[in-house]
């Protein structure tokens, strides 16, 4: 049976536009809140994030923690704090994230910039923050949670922009109410494939079957029991789209396995958390 070759396609024009918009937004703020998918602590980050942000202080949120393996996620938190020098907060924007901690850290990280402005004779102002991240890591959910308790839209700021809208979180912090989308631009197809697993890549950029095959291959060792239990497989079932399709009776005319339907179901089951709690990046070896 012919298998589609896996390749994630990028659209340079869209990427260039996203980069330009993000750089314009970054010029407006003192601190950046970078959101990553907790299932991909490394792969949902931007390789050139330091170059992109320059000297902007950064707070990392490992979001969608309700879908990630808890103990391993705590280990990733320590690793990322050591590697990046940035504070890391584990969040779940669907539930109650520690908003006070996020706000407190954002204000603290902005303080050097505020003090520098004051030494130039300017009055103290609220810190300005924005939320950035790859597509579909939960940026908008984080913004909605942060702004839920404060409906105070303070609009465009004189001397900053006439288009961007801001929300006052508290007297010390203003938040840009639109997320900064980090473009998914990289040549690493392994990373690109993992981003496709969690819907950080548009479905127009790939076919579901090769992505689902890659997903099965990746998790068949570390999370084998998750697959066996959820799909009620036995040791004799081949861990392929064809094998799972036959076992689940996902067939087409002629009793052939419906691999497209199977691929879509497997990816959706993973994304919705039905296959259990997972982290798809490998911990660094010591």
Strand/helix succession: HEHEHEHEHEEEHHHHEEH
Average residue pLDDT: 86
Integer-rounded radius of gyration = 21 Å
By secondary-structure content and strand pairing, the structural class works out as: alpha/beta
N-end to C-end Cα span? 41 Å
Strand residue content: 5-15%
Please bin the fraction of helical residues.
40-55%
Unreliable parts = 154-162
Shape: elongated
Beta-strand segment tally: 9
Largest pleated sheet = 7 strands, mixed
Total helix count? Answer: 10
Structure description:
This protein has 286 residues and is α/β, with parallel strands linked by helices. Helices cover 41% and strands 13% of the residues. It has ten helices and nine strands. The strands form two sheets. Strands 1, 2, 3, 4, 5, 6 and 7 form a seven-stranded mixed β-sheet that branches. It has a two-stranded antiparallel ribbon with strand order 8-9. α6 packs across α7 (208-222), α7 packs across α10 (259-271) and α9 (241-248) packs across α10 (259-271). The two termini are 41 Å apart.
Sequence-ordered SSE layout with sheet pairings:
Blueprint: H1 12-26, E1 31-37, H2 49-53, E2 58-63, H3 70-84, E3 88-90, H4 99-119, E4 127-133, H5 139-148, E5 166-170, E6 173-176, E7 180-181, H6 189-197, H7 208-222, H8 224-230, H9 241-248, E8 251-252, E9 256-257, H10 259-271
Parallel strand pairs: 1-2, 1-4, 2-3, 4-6, 4-7
Antiparallel strand pairs: 5-6, 8-9
Helix pairs in contact: 6-7, 7-10, 9-10
